[in-house]
Design brief:
about 120 residues, mainly beta, globular, 2 helices, single chain, 6-stranded mixed beta sheet
Length: about 120
């Protein structure tokens, strides 16, 4: 299954159903399920200072924390989370994992062998 590493607190806000768009400089043709990996890095400014809601969600790092469905990729999303001059990955149906599953992230979309991960139940 494909996964995407996202800095915190954005990863947790996506899995909590608060953030419905992921901003990227590149577009994707991927549609369907996408594992969300919370990176070890933190957004140095926006996520912590501007969005107080980040205090309301768990902030694990270096782990798979949930799934979403990628339902589109546009440049003109009406979402309040969409940033100008970025591709807006439209996300739906967030689903948090019962507990974070430690995993090293990677750049771009990457494959995760869900069969080989202890404690990852996607049923």
């Amino acid at each position: 299954m494909r996964a995407l590493t996202i800095r915190q607190p954005w990863a947790s806000l996506i899995v909590a159903g608060i953030k419905d768009v992921e901003n990227r400089s590149w577009r994707t043709n991927h549609r369907g399920p996408l594992l969300i990996h919370a990176g070890t890095g933190r957004d140095p400014v926006d996520g912590w200072r501007v969005h107080e809601v980040a205090r309301l969600v768990e902030i694990p790092r270096g782990a798979l924390i949930g799934m979403v469905d990628v339902v589109g990729c546009v440049r003109d999303s009406p979402s309040r989370w969409a940033r100008p001059a970025q591709w807006h990955w439209e996300l739906a149906r967030p689903w948090p994992l019962p507990r974070p599953v430690p995993l090293r992230g990677r750049l771009g979309l990457f494959e995760v062998d869900v069969e080989g991960l202890d404690g990852l139940d996607l049923r």
